[in-house]
Hints:
The chain is mainly α and about 130 residues long. The radius of gyration is 27 Å and the shape is elongated. The chain has one domain: Multidrug-efflux Transporter Regulator, Chain: A, Domain 2. A 3-stranded antiparallel sheet has the order 1-3-2. The protein contains 4 helices and 3 strands. Strand 2 and strand 3 form a beta hairpin.
Amino acid sequence: MPPKTRKRAKAGYMISAVAELYKLHPQTLRLYERVGLLKPSRSQGNTRLYTEADLERLDVILTLAREMGVNLAGIEIILNMREKMIEMERQMAEFTQVVRQELSRMASQPEEKPSKHAIVRTGPRIVRT
């Protein structure tokens, strides 16, 4: 596997270059595409082009397969769960930002007196002893 610190070109890699870089047979990359684990883009001439994102995903796939012994079905499930978790994290960050903005807005406004038309009255509490 290539070192993580190695810079990769912005343009897509052809299948032969990726296979050589990762010490894989090109058929393995084709299999990963066929089962839906990788989705390389295509050139005008229909040549597979692997982007930086494809190579990062391939790193994960190979780590799961080679180092952890996960089969292809398991890899698919793990990758799908990762994508859902990333989306949930994005949504939570968005929600947190909205809550912070609302709290900030409320803190900057002067406190309003309770409405006289409220369903439940609020006011000074009378304690009987």
